[in-house]
Amino acid sequence: MTAELLAKTMTKFSAECPGIFSQVDRYARENIGSIDSEVDYSKMSFSDLCTFLEFIELREYGGGERWSDSGSREKLALRFYLSKTLAEYTPDKDALPSIYVQFAEQLHERDIVITFNWDGLLEVALERVGKLYTYNFSDENAIKLCKLHGSVNWRLGQPKNLRGPIDTLGWESLRFSEGIMTQEIYSTATLLHFSTWRHYSPIGEVEPFLVLPGYGKAFDVRSIAVLWYKPEFAFATTHDVYIIGLGLAPDDFFIRSFFLSNLPYIKSYSGVEGRRIYIVNPDPASVKNYDFVLSKGDAELLNEPFSTDHISLMKERLSNA
Prior knowledge:
The chain has 14 helices and ten strands. It is α/β, with parallel strands linked by helices and 321 residues long. The strands form three sheets. A four-stranded antiparallel β-sheet has the order 5-6-4-7. The two termini are 36 Å apart.
């Protein structure tokens, strides 16, 4: 979440849904300790705001005032406008930068892409190059997209306000509830395109499932817990692992624990010869953030922005595997 994206989201939120926005804005003022000051969302900690909203929701839940099982009105509306803003700034398939097209072109059906992004950029790129993808690991002939923080085109639970037999958005079950999960996640490809969002408002059929940062994250990830353990099987059999542009926030214990539980053992337990872990990240802090695997010599840090040269490396490594 960039400061620019948050500022654009809150501007849209304020203009289109002033009632609920005013409540979120009041909580933001409380959070910065200045109830009478205007909030500069380009400088605000989004994680702190989400944590405070989670506390408010917890307080309401304890008092029997919970809006829905999906969250409070404020939290649902915030997710809606985050998703709508992301959809607006995601290029359509004919305007994609070439690097995304090239990345999508070199993926094949055995690949698993683990992403912590909410946007649908990769889905649009795969649509552009004519490759199938799946969110639930069920299709062996499709690229697996494992979105561990949810997605702009997902929702928790079946839409309750559908009228008649026509499902205009084409919701599809991800079938997570066929295992241990009790509540289903649904997805629709139509919400990957901004033109669809013009017909919908928050607190309705479109309730994007996004795992927000902050200390409320522990509650949300339980709804997609199945996705947090399935990639562990993928790590055991894949050849190379590429971690692209992912910064590890000091307080994001879930992502850190996910990597701590898997990366240090990729080479020693897999039995796959010659496999490597490549970390492609220009952030100088990556040296410290990934020390738990770099210090053992099991990974190589490419301290630079992701480029077409790295795509060539992927292709070369794959052809030699």
